[in-house]
């Protein structure tokens, strides 16, 4: 895998983090968090805040901050990053569904996160020894 592939994956991670955080901000600004009054689902109120927090976490880890390496070490490994992306994909397919009129946009976004997460998990299984430059590019 070349350096270009690592850069493309980083750009996709940054874009997906921004989409997740912006979708959370949009739910707060458009007052969709008060949908709880109609549906009586408590998670509708808290989900935008989680979306913003997890989107910011995904964005900050791309720039290798010491804080993230100290307190969220699992995001600095391929396996941890992969599991985190798979979790975000499962969360976002349902939470972003309310932002769009169709299920297609959240499905595509969640599929991209899932594929990248699965890619990280597979790489963590096969790249046990060596390949440090590849791990450094991706994580």
UniProtKB/TrEMBL annotation:
The chain crosses the membrane at residues 12-33, 45-61, 73-95, 107-127. It is a multi-pass membrane protein. It is found in: Membrane. One of its GO terms (cellular component) is membrane. The keyword Transmembrane helix applies. InterPro entries: Golgi_TVP15 (IPR013714). Keywords: Membrane, Transmembrane, Transmembrane helix. PANTHER family: CHROMOSOME UNDETERMINED SCAFFOLD_46, WHOLE GENOME SHOTGUN SEQUENCE, GOLGI APPARATUS MEMBRANE PROTEIN TVP15. This is COPI associated protein.
């Amino acid at each position: 895998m070349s350096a270009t592939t690592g850069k493309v994956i980083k750009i996709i991670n940054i874009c997906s983090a921004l989409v997740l955080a912006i979708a959370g901000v949009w739910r707060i600004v458009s007052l969709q968090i008060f949908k709880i009054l109609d549906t009586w689902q408590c998670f509708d109120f808290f989900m935008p805040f989680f979306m913003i927090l997890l989107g910011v976490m995904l964005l900050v880890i791309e720039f290798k901050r010491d804080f993230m390496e100290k307190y969220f070490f699992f995001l600095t490994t391929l396996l941890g990053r992969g599991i985190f992306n798979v979790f975000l994909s499962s969360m976002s397919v349902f939470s972003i569904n309310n932002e769009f009129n169709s299920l297609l946009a959240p499905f595509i976004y969640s599929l991209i996160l899932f594929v990248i997460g699965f890619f990280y998990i597979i790489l963590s299984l096969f790249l046990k020894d060596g390949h440090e430059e590849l791990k450094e590019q991706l994580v």
